[in-house]
C-alpha cells in the first residue's frame, strides 16, 4: 500500500479536459457518420421494396387482365 507521501510523488498522466472533449467529439462524429450511412441504406432499401412491391402488384394485375380476356 502506498503512503500518501509516495502517492504524491507519482506522476500520473491524465488527459486534459480539452483532449478528452476532442476525443469524445471525434467519436461522436464517427458514430453520427455511421448512423447517417445506415439511414441512407434504409431509405434506399425502402425505395427498392416499394418498387418491387409495385412491380409484383402490377404483374399480378396484368396477368389478371389477360386471364379475364382483356
Automatic annotation (TrEMBL):
It comes from the Bacteria. Keywords: DNA-binding, Restriction system. One of its GO terms (biological process) is DNA restriction-modification system. InterPro entries: Restrct_endonuc_typeI_TRD_sf (IPR044946). One of its GO terms (molecular function) is DNA binding. This is Type I restriction enzyme, S subunit. It comes from Vreelandella arcis.
